[in-house]
Amino acid sequence: MSVDPMAYEAQFFGFTPQTCMLRIYLAFQDYLFEVMQVVEGVILKKLDKMPGCKISPSQVRKCTEQFLLFMKDRFDKLFGKMEEVLLQLVLSIPKNVLLPEDKVHEQFPYSPEQFQALQEEIRQLQLQCRAEVAAEQALRAELEEQKVVKAELEKILQWFDDLEKIFREQGIGSLQESLAFLTQSSKKLQVVLKEVEQKSEKLKLRDKLM
Predict the structure, then answer these.
(1) Which ranges form a coiled coil (predicted)?
(2) Along the 210 residues of the chain, how does pLDDT read in single tens digits?
(3) How far apart are CA 17 and CA 25, in angstroms?
(4) Which residue intervals of the chain are DSSP H helices?
(5) CA 153 to chain centre
(6) Rounded to whole angstroms, how far apart are CA atoms 197 and 175?
């Protein structure tokens, strides 16, 4: 069998020419075996009808196998020549012929260097696409976080609105003034608390000395 892969022919036919020839070879071989079995059966029937014949079935089988080997040897030689002719003249595409789907290569020929540069450009574009996809995913995640923060801020603003409404209903004044008052009171309490802590430390120190 030919070792040439014949990839272009496989693209056109949908199968490799070598596969086609192998199937033809096996089909002929199977047919030859079947014919020899039929011939052997006919010989055995003829011998049964011949009284006094000293040829045994085992001798017939031996002769049949020898004849089969002889025929197979002749068949292999003939098939080798037939295979060579079919692969060269029937199942091969001439070098100057392009398949319709490959016409674009004739219109836009590329050298190996140009093809390699194009492959590198494609690789760079793929990397850029992956980077853009990753950036888009990061932006989407950030937007989701902003939505959560916005919802929390809206809750806080609603809480301040409700608090200001309560202050107005109680006649306390505006929320801004109330918060300022609370801030001042808190600072005064912090000062008082600090003074209390200092006095407490002094008392503890005096108790230790006494």
Answers:
(1) 115-206
(2) 555 667 778 777 788 888 888 899 999 989 988 988 898 888 888 888 777 777 788 888 888 889 888 988 998 889 988 888 888 888 887 777 777 766 666 666 667 788 788 889 999 999 999 999 999 998 888 888 888 888 887 887 787 677 667 666 666 555 566 666 667 766 777 777 777 777 777 666 666 655
(3) 12
(4) 7-13, 17-48, 57-85, 103-107, 112-170, 175-209
(5) 45
(6) 32
| Token representation of residue 162 | 């409700």
Between CA 208 and CA 206 the distance in angstroms is 5
Question: Two tokens at 32?
Answer: 């030859």
Residues 6+ apart with CB under 8 A from 110: 118
